[in-house]
Structures are given as structure tokens and as C-alpha cells.
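Possible regression after last week's pipeline update?

I re-ran a chain I had predicted before the update to compare outputs. Posting the input and the new output here so someone can diff against the archived version. Not blocking, just want to make sure nothing changed silently.
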Amino acid sequence: MTAQRQFLADAGHELRTPITIIQGNLDTIAATGDDAESLAIAADELARMTRLVDELLLLASSERPDFLHLEPADLPAPTRSLVAKARALDGRPWVPAGTAPGTALLDPQRITQAVMQLAANAAAHTPAGTPVEIWSATDGTSLEFAVADHGPGIGAADRARVFHRFARLDPRRTDGTGLGLSIVAAISAAHRGRVSVTDSAGGGATFQIAIPLVRAAEPASPAPGGWPRHEFRRAPA
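New output (post-update):
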């Protein structure tokens, strides 16, 4: 219950700012009749609040049994698709750095959502034109999807905190909702896996989603001993 109360308190705090801004601009319109700029600001804050509510609802649903729609996925295909979709984010080099072979049972849409969040995060925190590697890999028991950037990286003390809800390492940044990486963590956990961050080779941050490798012919439920877990530490050569 303590965690739930903290979550509700954090959500209320985050929603209070756009609500206050919207109310202030509506008051300005009522008092002065000068509505063009005030309406634009209010509309922008409404869009931000809508996105925040949508992401809160997604997090709330992530523990439901119907959150994932598992299906056999041909692993090379979604990996290629992830790179192609990342290239639509900006003009930097998005480098395919490896593809896991075979098929696996997973939710392709949720995995895409998680990896694209990591790609957007890399684009937002690294200089324009800096290459970002995307890959999938398997060690036979676990399946990994990873995004490696070459920006400032994340200090060891902050590596767990970045996955907390509403976490912002730079308090001066006001873009985004602060929920992106917690959504990645929720999608990883729903697949009985986890997400971690390590140093990239040559500097930067590598985010890795590691989930149990379940082949299409295998049962989707966990074995009595639990799902196997493995944290990949590899970076592309």
C-alpha cells in the first residue's frame, strides 16, 4: 500500500503542473479576451496531460494477465523493423549490430514499444549525428534486445533510479513525462525479464532488455523453478 500511495502522490504532483497552467491561461482568456496565445498554451498542456494519463494507464495495466499478447515471432524480422523505425526518429546513423536467429514466443508490439522508447531516449540525450546501435542476441536461454548510444552515459549511482517512475536525472529538463523508462521496465517484467543499463564500448549508455527465451513450441508459462534470467553485458564489436 505504501508503494501505491507514493505512486498516486507522484502522479498527482505531475498532473498538478499542467492543470495549473491550463487554469491560469483560461483565467487570462476570461479576464482579457486575448485568447490566441493562451489557447495554444492550454492545448499544449492538455496534450501533455493526455500523454501522461495514457502512460499512467499503461503502467497500471502492465500487471494484468492480458497485458501481453504472446505469439511466435521470427526474430530477424522484428529486429530489422526496429532499426527501420528508429531511422524515422532522426537522421543519425542507426546501426544494426546483430540479429538473434530463430523464433521466440513474445509480444512483438510491446517489445517494439520498449525498444523504440530506448531509441527515442538515446536520440534525446546524445548529440545529433551520433551513431546508435540496435541489436538482438541470444545465449540459448535468454533473449536480448539492446540499444547502445555514445553520449554522456549514466553514472553507476543513477542506473537503478532511471527506471523509477517520474525519474529525471536532469531536473532542468521538462520535456517528456518521466515515465518512458519505467514503461520499458514494466514491459520487460511482463515478459518475466528485466532491463538494465551498462557502459557502451567507447563511452555512452547501453540499455539491455533480457527476457527468457521461449521457443514457439515450448509452453509459455513459467517452469516450477521460475523463468530463467540473464543480464547480458555484451556490446557490439
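Follow-up from reviewer: compared with the archived run. The mean pLDDT is 79. Marking as no regression found.
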